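note to self: dont lose this again. the chain is below, predicted strucutre after it. 250 aa total, dont forget to put it in the shared folder this time
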Amino acid sequence: MTVYQRLLEVKERKGGGYLVLIDPDKTPVHSLPGIMENAIVSGVDAFLVGGSLLLTPQFDQYVEQFKKYAQELPVIVFPGGVHQVSRHADAILFLSLLSGRNPDHLIGAQVLAAPILHSLKLEAISTAYLLIESGEVTSAEFMSGTRPLPRKKPEIAVAHALAAEYFGFKFIYLEGGSGAQQAVPSEIIAAVDAHVNVPLIVGGGIRTPEDAAQKVKAGASFIVTGNILETPDNRSLVQEFSQAIHQKGA
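---
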């Protein structure tokens, strides 16, 4: 079973999937065992690894260590650039920033990365990446040199999502951005879900289990959290997020 198939099975069985994002710049290797053990016990479904900037050298070695603590859960690269590729990962989100008009992030970086992924035989999951306005300039917005889609105009997000479906993307990722002031509005999630048949990943600015549950009810197939894990006092929230997202009680 591919990682993509496994994720679809999780969504079908649990009602929603919970993905935890680890940024190597914010989570040193020595912190991984405790964070990941807590996540696994709490019932997360997969790990994402990556960041918009990545100041940490030796990404491949980081993922190698990460994989040792992941047990049976998939480790999926969430790349901020071509340099974020690892032979030790189980899969990679093959992102195209469809919300922007920067050709490097639409197709340029992807062309450079494709031969590397092919040689590594790394499962690539084609993902349309849509940045949504979140109240401030996020790292993803700044580093990509693109403007996000307006949060009060769901029809614009729907048009981009339809284009993604017609292109054949396997996932649509609605992103508020790391540390976003505001999460992706449920109105946008519901509008996109009503028009496309592609599973939706939603992340950025989701700070409470109640907010996560609301996003799933609006149509999100997978919820991503990251920043809440960076503060030790908040790690007890992971189980609450898991319970809120897994709405079929699996």
